[in-house]
């Protein structure tokens, strides 16, 4: 568990050392790694889009980052003394979002959409999604996030995504709003695009939950199984449980008691669901089938996981958490959507063959 996955240091070009719970990495290694990732990413982008203009435009972004890193010690900036922390949570969100986008761009081609549509869609999903996810998190945990803060500290705490703190269901709400706006603006059928991006959504979630594990949020209850985990003092889990009492910490207070790694459970289930939906995507009987099936299946595993999670109290006078209440609502509405789509489907072209499809447009 590493809140700070690694720290880029500038005292030596090829420095590599583990200190405490941080890995110190010389900026030379990071530039080399970035250039390797850039080469692979641009290669994949070219294979997917065959658009030289898009590749060249992306090249500027990939080149700007290592250039900026190399200039930091030369310019003598203060950050050269402290180093640059790479937060595990933020890094995994970046990996998840990038991987999900590449997968969705490939799926788009199979329904006659240009991969460019997915790249254009990114900001329409990301900005409303992050805003929605953060708002829901603050509504649930604002009493803890803002405790003892005032003025600019409150503003900083509100936007401090680098410290973790987003709720998946809030991101879904914001993302749906962004998706509908994008489809209306570009004349794309929402159900068609929903089918394309649904498997990718769970790929992104799978990587995001690994970020949760590194940060220590979304933790589970006490566990005696061989794969139980303990979180160190610099984790969110330790901070929360220390306020609940000494019985949640080891006798020497060097870590939490053994807990269920619910973040890893959630990650594995998300990847499995993504794989199943990709399989179903090629066999879907009508537009919206993949969307509605994911809408139905995810709430089931989320409701079950909440039973062994221990990071959220019951809501609305019940023992059910916010996520469980949301899961019930999504499951019911997903079933209604599936039944409605089956009843109102009409022949359309899917994957090059004629199959039933709902006649729904934006």
Key traits:
63% helix, 362 residues, 12 helices, four-stranded mixed sheet, globular, alpha+beta, two-stranded antiparallel ribbon
Describe what this molecule looks like in 3D.
There is one protein chain. Mean pLDDT is 83; it is low at 352-362. The chain has helices at 27-49, 52-75, 79-82, 88-110, 115-145, 152-159, 168-186, 190-215, 236-242, 262-281, 289-308, 322-343; strands at residues 4-9, 16-19, 22-26, 84-87, 345-350, 353-358. The radius of gyration is 22 Å and the shape is globular. The strands form 2 sheets. It has a 4-stranded mixed sheet with strand order 2-3-1-4. Strands 5-6 form a two-stranded antiparallel ribbon. The protein is α+β, with helices and mostly antiparallel strands and 362 residues long.
Distance between the termini: 44 Å
Helix content range of the residues, please?
A: 55-70%
Instruction: List low-pLDDT spans.
Output: 352-362
**Element pattern in H and E:** EEEHHHEHHHHHHHHHEE
Q: Count up the domains.
A: 2
Q: How many helices in DSSP terms?
A: 12
Number of strands: 6
SSE layout:
Elements: E1 4-9, E2 16-19, E3 22-26, H1 27-49, H2 52-75, H3 79-82, E4 84-87, H4 88-110, H5 115-145, H6 152-159, H7 168-186, H8 190-215, H9 236-242, H10 262-281, H11 289-308, H12 322-343, E5 345-350, E6 353-358
Parallel strand pairs: 1-3
Antiparallel strand pairs: 1-4, 2-3, 5-6
Helix pairs in contact: 1-2, 4-5, 4-8, 5-7, 7-8, 8-10, 8-11, 10-11, 11-12
Summarize it:
The chain is α+β, with helices and mostly antiparallel strands and 362 residues long.
